[in-house]
Amino acid sequence: MRRNRKAKIVATLGPVSSDRAVIRDLFDNGVDVFRLNFSHGTHEDHKQRLEFIRELELEVGRPVGVLMDIQGPKLRLGKFRDDKANLKKGRKFRLDMSDELGGKRRASLPHPEIFAALKPGSEVVIDDGRVRLEVVDCGVDHAETRVVVGGVVSNNKGVNVPDVILPISVLTEKDKRDLAYGLKLGFDWVAQSFVQQPADVMELREIVGDKAKIMVKLEKPSALEKLDDILKICDGIMVARGDLGVELPPQQVPVAQKKIIRRCRGAGKPVVVATHMLESMVTNPVPTRAEASDVATAIYDGADAVMLSAESAAGEYPVRSVKMMNDIIEEVEDDPAYPAILDSQRPQPDNTTADAICNGLQSITNILSSAATVTYTASGSTTLRAARERPHAPILSLTPLVQTARHLSIAWGVHAVAVDVANEAAEVDDVINEAKAIAVRERFAGSGEAIVIAAGLPFGTSGTTNLIHVAWID
Length: 474
Prior knowledge:
The protein is an alpha/beta fold. The chain folds into three domains: 8-72 and 169-333, Alpha-Beta Barrel (TIM Barrel), CATH 3.20.20.60; 84-160, M1 Pyruvate Kinase, Domain 3 (Beta Barrel); 346-472, Pyruvate kinase, C-terminal domain (Pyruvate Kinase, Chain: A, domain 1, 3-Layer(aba) Sandwich), CATH 3.40.1380.20. The protein is 37% helix and 23% strand. It has 17 helices and 21 strands. An eight-stranded parallel barrel has the order 1-2-3-12-13-14-15-16, surrounded by six helices. Strands 6-5-9-8-7-11 form a six-stranded mixed β-sheet, with no helix packed on it. Strand 7 (123-126) and strand 8 (131-138) form a beta hairpin.
Protein backbone atom coordinates (compact mmCIF):
# COMPACT_ATOMS: atom_id res chain seq x y z
CA MET A 1 0.00 0.00 0.00
CA ARG A 2 1.90 3.02 -1.26
CA ARG A 3 1.18 6.71 -0.68
CA ASN A 4 0.78 9.23 -3.46
CA ARG A 5 2.91 11.77 -1.63
CA LYS A 6 6.41 12.05 -0.25
CA ALA A 7 6.06 14.03 3.01
CA LYS A 8 4.80 11.90 5.88
CA ILE A 9 2.08 12.24 8.52
CA VAL A 10 2.54 11.55 12.23
CA ALA A 11 -0.65 11.26 14.28
CA THR A 12 -1.07 11.04 18.05
CA LEU A 13 -3.31 8.35 19.50
CA GLY A 14 -5.50 9.14 22.48
CA PRO A 15 -8.96 8.68 23.97
CA VAL A 16 -10.84 9.10 20.67
CA SER A 17 -8.43 7.04 18.58
CA SER A 18 -7.48 3.99 20.59
CA ASP A 19 -9.57 1.18 19.17
CA ARG A 20 -8.53 -1.05 16.31
CA ALA A 21 -11.08 0.30 13.80
CA VAL A 22 -10.16 3.97 14.26
CA ILE A 23 -6.44 3.22 14.04
CA ARG A 24 -7.09 1.44 10.74
CA ASP A 25 -9.13 4.42 9.48
CA LEU A 26 -6.32 6.78 10.44
CA PHE A 27 -3.81 4.68 8.55
CA ASP A 28 -6.04 4.33 5.49
CA ASN A 29 -6.46 8.09 5.35
CA GLY A 30 -2.75 8.80 5.51
CA VAL A 31 -0.96 8.16 8.83
CA ASP A 32 2.59 6.85 8.36
CA VAL A 33 3.78 6.99 12.00
CA PHE A 34 1.74 6.80 15.19
CA ARG A 35 2.77 8.80 18.27
CA LEU A 36 1.96 7.53 21.76
CA ASN A 37 2.23 10.29 24.32
CA PHE A 38 3.48 8.95 27.66
CA SER A 39 2.40 12.17 29.41
CA HIS A 40 -1.08 10.63 29.34
CA GLY A 41 -2.52 7.14 29.69
CA THR A 42 -1.32 3.99 31.42
CA HIS A 43 1.30 1.50 30.34
CA GLU A 44 -1.48 -0.94 29.54
CA ASP A 45 -3.17 1.68 27.31
CA HIS A 46 0.01 2.14 25.29
CA LYS A 47 0.66 -1.59 25.08
CA GLN A 48 -2.78 -2.24 23.63
CA ARG A 49 -2.41 0.56 21.08
CA LEU A 50 0.97 -0.77 20.00
CA GLU A 51 -0.50 -4.25 19.60
CA PHE A 52 -3.26 -2.87 17.37
CA ILE A 53 -0.65 -1.07 15.23
CA ARG A 54 1.45 -4.22 14.83
CA GLU A 55 -1.68 -6.16 13.82
CA LEU A 56 -2.45 -3.43 11.28
CA GLU A 57 1.09 -3.68 9.94
CA LEU A 58 0.61 -7.36 9.20
CA GLU A 59 -2.76 -6.73 7.54
CA VAL A 60 -1.52 -4.05 5.14
CA GLY A 61 1.91 -5.55 4.50
CA ARG A 62 3.71 -2.28 5.11
CA PRO A 63 6.00 -1.25 8.01
CA VAL A 64 4.40 1.32 10.32
CA GLY A 65 6.53 3.43 12.64
CA VAL A 66 5.59 4.01 16.27
CA LEU A 67 7.02 6.86 18.35
CA MET A 68 6.90 6.97 22.14
CA ASP A 69 7.00 10.54 23.46
CA ILE A 70 8.38 10.71 27.02
CA GLN A 71 7.18 13.50 29.26
CA GLY A 72 10.35 15.05 30.67
CA PRO A 73 10.44 17.42 33.67
CA LYS A 74 7.29 19.40 34.42
CA LEU A 75 7.94 22.65 36.28
CA ARG A 76 4.80 23.98 37.96
CA LEU A 77 3.61 26.52 40.51
CA GLY A 78 2.06 25.39 43.79
CA LYS A 79 -1.54 26.01 44.81
CA PHE A 80 -3.36 29.31 45.54
CA ARG A 81 -5.72 30.20 48.41
CA ASP A 82 -8.64 30.85 46.07
CA ASP A 83 -7.31 28.43 43.43
CA LYS A 84 -6.11 31.42 41.40
CA ALA A 85 -4.78 34.97 41.59
CA ASN A 86 -4.80 37.98 39.28
CA LEU A 87 -1.33 39.43 38.81
CA LYS A 88 -1.25 43.11 37.85
CA LYS A 89 1.33 44.51 35.44
CA GLY A 90 4.11 46.43 37.19
CA ARG A 91 3.45 44.88 40.64
CA LYS A 92 6.00 42.94 42.66
CA PHE A 93 5.54 39.18 42.92
CA ARG A 94 7.55 36.71 44.97
CA LEU A 95 8.33 33.09 44.14
CA ASP A 96 9.63 30.87 46.93
CA MET A 97 9.86 27.33 48.28
CA SER A 98 7.26 27.74 51.04
CA ASP A 99 4.29 25.37 51.08
CA GLU A 100 2.00 28.26 52.02
CA LEU A 101 -0.89 28.81 49.60
CA GLY A 102 -0.26 31.57 47.10
CA GLY A 103 -2.02 34.86 46.43
CA LYS A 104 -1.64 38.02 44.38
CA ARG A 105 1.75 38.87 46.00
CA ARG A 106 3.51 35.48 46.08
CA ALA A 107 3.32 31.84 45.08
CA SER A 108 5.07 28.58 45.78
CA LEU A 109 7.56 27.31 43.20
CA PRO A 110 8.85 23.98 44.57
CA HIS A 111 11.82 23.70 42.22
CA PRO A 112 15.20 24.57 43.78
CA GLU A 113 16.87 23.95 40.42
CA ILE A 114 15.08 27.00 39.02
CA PHE A 115 16.29 29.28 41.82
CA ALA A 116 19.81 27.89 41.38
CA ALA A 117 19.84 29.08 37.75
CA LEU A 118 18.02 32.42 38.04
CA LYS A 119 19.77 35.78 38.00
CA PRO A 120 18.53 39.38 37.92
CA GLY A 121 17.02 40.07 34.50
CA SER A 122 15.94 36.46 33.91
CA GLU A 123 12.42 35.92 32.64
CA VAL A 124 9.93 33.52 34.24
CA VAL A 125 7.02 32.54 32.00
CA ILE A 126 3.79 31.10 33.41
CA ASP A 127 0.89 29.28 31.72
CA ASP A 128 2.32 29.06 28.20
CA GLY A 129 3.35 32.72 28.15
CA ARG A 130 0.10 34.24 29.34
CA VAL A 131 1.90 35.75 32.34
CA ARG A 132 5.53 36.93 32.31
CA LEU A 133 7.74 37.95 35.21
CA GLU A 134 11.17 39.60 35.31
CA VAL A 135 13.55 38.63 38.12
CA VAL A 136 14.69 41.65 40.13
CA ASP A 137 16.53 39.83 42.93
CA CYS A 138 16.96 36.16 43.80
CA GLY A 139 18.50 33.65 46.18
CA VAL A 140 18.79 29.91 46.57
CA ASP A 141 15.15 29.55 47.62
CA HIS A 142 13.32 32.64 46.35
CA ALA A 143 13.03 35.24 43.62
CA GLU A 144 11.62 38.76 43.76
CA THR A 145 10.06 39.58 40.41
CA ARG A 146 8.18 42.32 38.59
CA VAL A 147 5.06 41.46 36.59
CA VAL A 148 5.79 42.33 32.96
CA VAL A 149 2.65 40.76 31.46
CA GLY A 150 -0.20 40.41 33.92
CA GLY A 151 -3.07 37.97 34.04
CA VAL A 152 -4.73 35.23 36.03
CA VAL A 153 -2.61 32.34 37.28
CA SER A 154 -4.06 29.26 38.95
CA ASN A 155 -3.07 26.07 40.69
CA ASN A 156 -0.19 24.05 39.25
CA LYS A 157 0.28 26.13 36.11
CA GLY A 158 3.39 25.36 34.08
CA VAL A 159 6.54 27.47 34.41
CA ASN A 160 9.22 28.12 31.77
CA VAL A 161 12.56 29.84 32.21
CA PRO A 162 13.64 30.66 28.64
CA ASP A 163 17.09 32.18 29.01
CA VAL A 164 18.85 29.81 31.42
CA ILE A 165 20.06 26.22 31.42
CA LEU A 166 18.56 24.46 34.43
CA PRO A 167 20.90 22.15 36.38
CA ILE A 168 18.64 19.11 36.19
CA SER A 169 18.50 15.77 34.43
CA VAL A 170 15.94 15.94 31.64
CA LEU A 171 15.04 12.30 32.35
CA THR A 172 12.74 11.95 35.34
CA GLU A 173 12.14 8.75 37.26
CA LYS A 174 8.83 8.45 35.43
CA ASP A 175 10.66 8.77 32.10
CA LYS A 176 13.06 6.00 33.08
CA ARG A 177 10.19 3.69 34.03
CA ASP A 178 8.39 4.51 30.78
CA LEU A 179 11.55 3.92 28.75
CA ALA A 180 12.17 0.53 30.33
CA TYR A 181 8.61 -0.46 29.50
CA GLY A 182 8.51 1.04 26.00
CA LEU A 183 11.86 -0.32 24.87
CA LYS A 184 10.86 -3.79 26.03
CA LEU A 185 7.67 -3.53 23.95
CA GLY A 186 9.65 -2.47 20.89
CA PHE A 187 8.89 1.17 20.07
CA ASP A 188 10.77 2.42 17.02
CA TRP A 189 11.42 6.03 18.01
CA VAL A 190 11.76 7.85 21.34
CA ALA A 191 10.92 11.57 21.39
CA GLN A 192 12.87 13.39 24.10
CA SER A 193 11.43 16.49 25.78
CA PHE A 194 13.15 19.40 27.56
CA VAL A 195 16.52 19.00 25.82
CA GLN A 196 18.80 21.90 26.73
CA GLN A 197 22.20 20.71 25.47
CA PRO A 198 23.90 17.72 23.77
CA ALA A 199 24.69 16.05 27.11
CA ASP A 200 20.94 15.57 27.64
CA VAL A 201 20.73 13.50 24.45
CA MET A 202 23.76 11.45 25.44
CA GLU A 203 22.06 10.61 28.74
CA LEU A 204 19.13 9.14 26.82
CA ARG A 205 21.42 7.40 24.33
CA GLU A 206 23.07 5.48 27.17
CA ILE A 207 19.66 4.03 28.07
CA VAL A 208 18.27 3.49 24.57
CA GLY A 209 21.40 2.19 22.86
CA ASP A 210 20.44 0.73 19.49
CA LYS A 211 16.98 -0.39 20.61
CA ALA A 212 15.28 2.68 19.12
CA LYS A 213 16.01 5.92 17.28
CA ILE A 214 16.09 9.19 19.21
CA MET A 215 14.06 12.21 18.11
CA VAL A 216 14.93 15.40 19.96
CA LYS A 217 12.05 17.79 20.54
CA LEU A 218 13.42 21.29 20.04
CA GLU A 219 11.58 23.29 22.67
CA LYS A 220 14.24 25.52 24.23
CA PRO A 221 16.41 28.32 22.82
CA SER A 222 19.53 26.80 24.40
CA ALA A 223 19.02 23.65 22.31
CA LEU A 224 18.46 25.73 19.20
CA GLU A 225 21.81 27.43 19.80
CA LYS A 226 23.50 23.99 19.90
CA LEU A 227 21.49 22.51 17.03
CA ASP A 228 24.47 21.32 14.97
CA ASP A 229 26.01 19.49 17.93
CA ILE A 230 22.67 17.90 18.83
CA LEU A 231 22.15 16.79 15.22
CA LYS A 232 25.39 14.84 15.32
CA ILE A 233 24.17 12.57 18.13
CA CYS A 234 20.42 12.25 17.57
CA ASP A 235 18.52 10.51 14.76
CA GLY A 236 15.83 13.10 14.09
CA ILE A 237 14.37 16.41 15.23
CA MET A 238 10.86 17.54 16.10
CA VAL A 239 10.09 21.26 15.86
CA ALA A 240 7.93 21.38 19.00
CA ARG A 241 6.43 24.79 18.34
CA GLY A 242 4.21 24.85 21.43
CA ASP A 243 6.97 25.09 24.03
CA LEU A 244 9.37 26.74 21.59
CA GLY A 245 6.76 29.45 21.02
CA VAL A 246 6.56 30.04 24.77
CA GLU A 247 10.30 30.43 25.20
CA LEU A 248 10.94 32.38 21.99
CA PRO A 249 9.12 35.54 20.89
CA PRO A 250 6.34 34.39 18.51
CA GLN A 251 7.79 36.28 15.55
CA GLN A 252 11.00 34.26 15.84
CA VAL A 253 9.35 30.83 15.68
CA PRO A 254 8.76 30.73 11.87
CA VAL A 255 12.37 31.72 11.24
CA ALA A 256 13.58 29.10 13.72
CA GLN A 257 11.39 26.47 12.03
CA LYS A 258 12.92 27.16 8.62
CA LYS A 259 16.42 27.13 10.06
CA ILE A 260 15.84 23.77 11.77
CA ILE A 261 14.42 22.20 8.60
CA ARG A 262 17.42 23.39 6.55
CA ARG A 263 19.94 22.10 9.10
CA CYS A 264 18.20 18.72 9.39
CA ARG A 265 18.10 18.25 5.64
CA GLY A 266 21.77 19.16 5.43
CA ALA A 267 22.56 16.55 8.06
CA GLY A 268 20.33 13.94 6.42
CA LYS A 269 18.22 13.60 9.58
CA PRO A 270 14.38 13.45 9.47
CA VAL A 271 12.59 16.55 10.77
CA VAL A 272 8.98 16.69 11.97
CA VAL A 273 7.02 19.94 12.30
CA ALA A 274 4.54 19.70 15.19
CA THR A 275 1.99 21.53 17.35
CA HIS A 276 -1.16 23.43 16.41
CA MET A 277 -0.99 22.51 12.74
CA LEU A 278 -4.75 21.95 12.38
CA GLU A 279 -5.70 22.90 15.94
CA SER A 280 -9.16 24.24 15.09
CA MET A 281 -10.12 20.77 13.83
CA VAL A 282 -10.25 19.62 17.44
CA THR A 283 -13.79 21.04 17.39
CA ASN A 284 -14.41 22.03 13.75
CA PRO A 285 -14.74 19.83 10.65
CA VAL A 286 -12.50 22.11 8.56
CA PRO A 287 -9.29 23.99 9.41
CA THR A 288 -8.73 27.70 9.16
CA ARG A 289 -7.07 29.00 6.00
CA ALA A 290 -4.09 30.02 8.11
CA GLU A 291 -3.70 26.44 9.39
CA ALA A 292 -3.85 25.01 5.87
CA SER A 293 -1.18 27.51 4.85
CA ASP A 294 0.90 26.55 7.89
CA VAL A 295 0.94 22.88 6.87
CA ALA A 296 1.68 23.83 3.26
CA THR A 297 4.59 26.03 4.32
CA ALA A 298 6.23 23.16 6.20
CA ILE A 299 5.91 20.97 3.09
CA TYR A 300 7.31 23.65 0.77
CA ASP A 301 10.22 24.04 3.19
CA GLY A 302 11.03 20.34 2.79
CA ALA A 303 9.97 18.89 6.15
CA ASP A 304 10.01 15.11 6.28
CA ALA A 305 6.76 14.96 8.24
CA VAL A 306 4.01 17.02 9.84
CA MET A 307 2.26 15.99 13.02
CA LEU A 308 -1.22 16.01 14.53
CA SER A 309 -1.57 16.11 18.33
CA ALA A 310 -4.92 16.84 19.98
CA GLU A 311 -6.58 16.81 16.55
CA SER A 312 -6.20 13.03 16.30
CA ALA A 313 -5.89 12.16 20.01
CA ALA A 314 -8.82 13.97 21.60
CA GLY A 315 -10.64 15.93 18.91
CA GLU A 316 -14.06 15.45 17.40
CA TYR A 317 -12.70 14.80 13.89
CA PRO A 318 -9.57 12.61 14.13
CA VAL A 319 -9.92 10.82 10.78
CA ARG A 320 -11.04 13.95 8.96
CA SER A 321 -8.02 15.81 10.35
CA VAL A 322 -5.67 13.19 8.92
CA LYS A 323 -7.41 13.25 5.55
CA MET A 324 -7.23 17.05 5.47
CA MET A 325 -3.50 16.98 6.20
CA ASN A 326 -3.03 14.32 3.51
CA ASP A 327 -4.97 16.43 0.99
CA ILE A 328 -2.93 19.56 1.77
CA ILE A 329 0.34 17.68 1.28
CA GLU A 330 -0.81 16.17 -2.01
CA GLU A 331 -1.96 19.59 -3.25
CA VAL A 332 1.44 21.14 -2.48
CA GLU A 333 3.37 18.26 -4.05
CA ASP A 334 1.25 18.58 -7.21
CA ASP A 335 2.36 22.20 -7.55
CA PRO A 336 4.84 22.38 -10.47
CA ALA A 337 6.91 24.82 -8.40
CA TYR A 338 7.37 22.34 -5.54
CA PRO A 339 10.24 20.26 -7.03
CA ALA A 340 12.05 23.42 -8.11
CA ILE A 341 11.78 24.86 -4.60
CA LEU A 342 13.26 21.69 -3.08
CA ASP A 343 15.99 21.58 -5.72
CA SER A 344 16.99 25.15 -4.89
CA GLN A 345 17.53 24.12 -1.26
CA ARG A 346 19.75 21.10 -1.96
CA PRO A 347 22.64 20.86 0.48
CA GLN A 348 26.18 20.42 -0.74
CA PRO A 349 27.23 16.74 -0.71
CA ASP A 350 29.98 15.65 1.62
CA ASN A 351 33.22 14.35 0.13
CA THR A 352 32.22 10.69 0.46
CA THR A 353 31.41 7.90 -1.97
CA ALA A 354 27.91 7.49 -0.46
CA ASP A 355 27.11 11.18 -0.92
CA ALA A 356 28.45 11.15 -4.48
CA ILE A 357 26.26 8.14 -5.30
CA CYS A 358 23.14 9.67 -3.73
CA ASN A 359 23.78 13.02 -5.40
CA GLY A 360 24.05 11.19 -8.70
CA LEU A 361 20.82 9.33 -7.95
CA GLN A 362 18.93 12.60 -7.80
CA SER A 363 20.35 13.88 -11.08
CA ILE A 364 19.85 10.63 -12.99
CA THR A 365 16.33 10.20 -11.65
CA ASN A 366 15.36 13.68 -12.76
CA ILE A 367 16.98 13.48 -16.21
CA LEU A 368 15.42 10.10 -17.03
CA SER A 369 12.11 10.82 -15.28
CA SER A 370 12.57 7.41 -13.71
CA ALA A 371 9.68 5.75 -11.90
CA ALA A 372 11.56 5.06 -8.67
CA THR A 373 14.85 5.26 -6.86
CA VAL A 374 15.77 1.95 -5.22
CA THR A 375 18.17 1.78 -2.29
CA TYR A 376 19.55 -1.31 -0.59
CA THR A 377 20.28 -0.61 3.07
CA ALA A 378 20.77 -2.38 6.38
CA SER A 379 21.09 0.56 8.76
CA GLY A 380 18.98 2.98 6.72
CA SER A 381 21.84 5.45 6.19
CA THR A 382 21.95 5.07 2.39
CA THR A 383 18.23 5.68 2.16
CA LEU A 384 18.42 8.78 4.37
CA ARG A 385 21.24 10.19 2.25
CA ALA A 386 19.12 9.60 -0.84
CA ALA A 387 16.12 11.26 0.82
CA ARG A 388 18.28 14.29 1.65
CA GLU A 389 18.55 14.94 -2.09
CA ARG A 390 14.73 15.04 -2.44
CA PRO A 391 14.64 13.20 -5.80
CA HIS A 392 11.57 13.68 -7.96
CA ALA A 393 10.89 9.92 -7.98
CA PRO A 394 9.84 8.08 -4.80
CA ILE A 395 12.49 6.12 -2.90
CA LEU A 396 11.89 2.39 -2.63
CA SER A 397 14.08 1.27 0.28
CA LEU A 398 14.87 -2.44 0.51
CA THR A 399 16.21 -3.65 3.85
CA PRO A 400 16.67 -7.01 5.58
CA LEU A 401 15.53 -5.54 8.90
CA VAL A 402 11.90 -4.82 9.76
CA GLN A 403 13.12 -2.42 12.44
CA THR A 404 15.03 -0.37 9.86
CA ALA A 405 11.95 -0.28 7.62
CA ARG A 406 9.90 1.06 10.54
CA HIS A 407 12.53 3.70 11.32
CA LEU A 408 12.41 4.89 7.71
CA SER A 409 8.62 5.29 7.70
CA ILE A 410 9.11 8.87 8.91
CA ALA A 411 11.60 9.86 6.19
CA TRP A 412 10.61 12.00 3.20
CA GLY A 413 9.77 10.11 0.03
CA VAL A 414 10.67 6.68 1.43
CA HIS A 415 8.59 3.55 0.94
CA ALA A 416 10.43 0.91 2.97
CA VAL A 417 10.09 -2.82 2.35
CA ALA A 418 11.58 -5.53 4.54
CA VAL A 419 12.93 -8.23 2.21
CA ASP A 420 15.58 -10.94 2.14
CA VAL A 421 18.10 -8.74 0.39
CA ALA A 422 21.19 -10.05 -1.32
CA ASN A 423 24.08 -11.49 0.64
CA GLU A 424 27.75 -10.95 -0.08
CA ALA A 425 27.87 -13.78 -2.60
CA ALA A 426 25.01 -12.45 -4.73
CA GLU A 427 25.60 -11.50 -8.36
CA VAL A 428 24.87 -7.96 -9.54
CA ASP A 429 22.27 -9.22 -12.02
CA ASP A 430 20.39 -11.03 -9.24
CA VAL A 431 20.19 -7.87 -7.17
CA ILE A 432 19.03 -5.80 -10.14
CA ASN A 433 16.34 -8.33 -11.05
CA GLU A 434 15.16 -8.39 -7.44
CA ALA A 435 14.89 -4.59 -7.39
CA LYS A 436 12.91 -4.62 -10.65
CA ALA A 437 10.53 -7.29 -9.39
CA ILE A 438 9.83 -5.48 -6.12
CA ALA A 439 9.35 -2.14 -7.90
CA VAL A 440 6.68 -3.75 -10.07
CA ARG A 441 5.09 -5.64 -7.17
CA GLU A 442 4.87 -2.51 -5.03
CA ARG A 443 3.38 -0.61 -8.02
CA PHE A 444 6.20 1.87 -8.37
CA ALA A 445 7.16 0.96 -11.94
CA GLY A 446 5.70 -0.67 -15.00
CA SER A 447 6.79 -1.94 -18.39
CA GLY A 448 9.12 0.43 -20.23
CA GLU A 449 9.93 2.55 -17.16
CA ALA A 450 13.33 3.07 -15.58
CA ILE A 451 14.42 2.63 -11.98
CA VAL A 452 17.71 3.88 -10.55
CA ILE A 453 19.38 1.53 -8.04
CA ALA A 454 21.92 2.35 -5.35
CA ALA A 455 23.66 -0.40 -3.42
CA GLY A 456 27.02 -1.44 -2.01
CA LEU A 457 29.54 -4.04 -3.04
CA PRO A 458 29.99 -6.53 -1.51
CA PHE A 459 26.25 -6.90 -1.01
CA GLY A 460 24.97 -7.20 2.54
CA THR A 461 27.80 -5.13 4.01
CA SER A 462 26.74 -1.95 5.81
CA GLY A 463 28.42 1.33 4.86
CA THR A 464 29.63 0.31 1.40
CA THR A 465 27.35 2.32 -0.89
CA ASN A 466 29.36 2.41 -4.12
CA LEU A 467 27.08 1.19 -6.92
CA ILE A 468 24.59 3.06 -9.07
CA HIS A 469 22.70 1.36 -11.88
CA VAL A 470 19.86 2.24 -14.24
CA ALA A 471 17.49 -0.66 -14.98
CA TRP A 472 14.52 -0.76 -17.34
CA ILE A 473 11.38 -2.72 -16.56
CA ASP A 474 10.63 -5.32 -19.27
